[in-house]
Amino acid sequence: MLDMKLFRDNPEVIRRDHERRGISQEPIDEVIRLDKEWKNSLHTMEASRRKRNIAAKEIAEAKKQGDQNKVNAILSQVKDLGLQIEQLDARAKDLLLQRDNLRMSIPNILHDDVPSGDDEQGNTMKMLSGEKPDFSFTPKTHNELIELNKWVDLERGAKVTGSRFFFLKGDLARMEIALQQFSIDHLTSRGFTLVQPPVMMNRDAYEGVTDLSDFETVMYGVEPDKLYMIATSEHPLTAMFKDEVIEPSKLPIMMVGVSPCFRREVGAHGLSDRGIWRVHQFTKVEQIIICHPDDSWNHHEVLLENCRTLWDALEIHYQIVNICTGDMGTVAAKKYDLEAWLPGANAYKEIVSCSNCTDYQANRLKMRYRTPEGNAPVHTLNSTAVATSRALVAIIEQNQLEDGRVKIPEVLRSYMHGQEILEPCQW
């Protein structure tokens, strides 16, 4: 969430951002109003406490002098002060809760480079990599390829769990593991530390990294323990340093996280989203950086460069787009999407999101670094490296052969004992 000092000292910055996004400024006014009421309640409560303290001293002095009439008179004057202080304290706490709950729903301040636009049509091209694969035959969709080669069993996945769950089999399952290992090696060679996070989080930690009012509908809850299955390792890895003051010498903290991810995707999303493109469980390799605020925009480009070199090594044709105001979520100040070309769908589809969240998550998590002037919020960044189910879709569609088999990207072959072609599963 945004620092309260921004609402108090420079609310016009937030107002201009809301104008760019085309959203109402009423929540800004309400936060400012609640903050003033909260401070007034604190002021009144402190005045009442001072009055009670003065009365206590006067009573003690009157007792020393044996003046019971004065004691009784003072007690009569302050008899309701205790209840008033309790009520004022409860009111102040309620106002603070209202203020900060509303503040958590107000989006981050967008970077100046974020293009204006109402929806994804306003996203702008940053770069294009490689050329579209040229086939001498009509390319199949990934749905057709996985069915032809028996690499995915959706029906049995639905039988044992439900729709949009699946069994991954044979050579495609082996390549999924190869993708994970290749991605880990790629990032650890660049100074990232491998971390495997817990796959469940409590509500307090989750509210530190995302707007649950917006995100909770796509998450799986665990009852009666009041936990959530993680939607991405970004969330536990970013929350890892919640309520901590980080020594500046430890920054930047660079992590590569690997975990299963769970999302309750709902609704119909089109033919290309069937199969394993949009599913309830998948594995993701994620980049996380926690850094000094002065360095975060450089790190944002570093995260994107890591993605570029990884996907270039896989020889996948893709485009990178700069996400516009109308397509931006609550948390990021700027976001790039890397979209792979899917020949079967005849479209570019998002396989990577790369975001700088500036101090937005750190403020919610109370995650600071030490400075000579006091503690200040760090900046947090995240980027997909590989979401394996979508990566598999891009690879098999771009590397398909006329007979339905698939060439294995050269960089993955050493992880698959030199194998060059994905062969069909026999059952």
Provide keyphrases for this structure.
427 residues, alpha+beta, 2 domains, BirA Bifunctional Protein, domain 2, Helix Hairpins, elongated
What is the number of helices?
15
CATH architecture of the largest domain: 2-Layer Sandwich
Please provide the count of β strands. Answer: 18
Please compute the radius of gyration using only Cα atoms. Answer: 28 Å
Strand proportion: 15-25%
Please give the domain count: 2
Explain what the structure shows.
The structure is a single chain. By secondary structure, this protein is α+β, with helices and mostly antiparallel strands. It has two domains: 4-103, Serine-tRNA synthetase, tRNA binding domain (Helix Hairpins); 120-422, Bira Bifunctional Protein, Domain 2 (BirA Bifunctional Protein, domain 2). Helix content is 42%, strand content 21%. It has helices at 4-9, 11-21, 26-64, 68-78, 81-103, 142-148, 154-160, 170-188, 203-209, 212-215, 234-239, 296-313, 360-365, 388-398, 410-413, and strands at residues 124-129, 152-153, 167-168, 193-195, 200-202, 221-222, 227-229, 245-246, 253-262, 281-291, 318-322, 334-342, 347-356, 368-371, 374-377, 379-387, 406-407, 421-422. It has an eight-stranded mixed beta sheet. A three-stranded antiparallel beta sheet has the order 5-7-6. It has a three-stranded mixed beta sheet with strand order 8-14-15, with no helix packed on it. The longest helix has 39 residues, at 26-64. The chain is elongated and about 105 Å long.
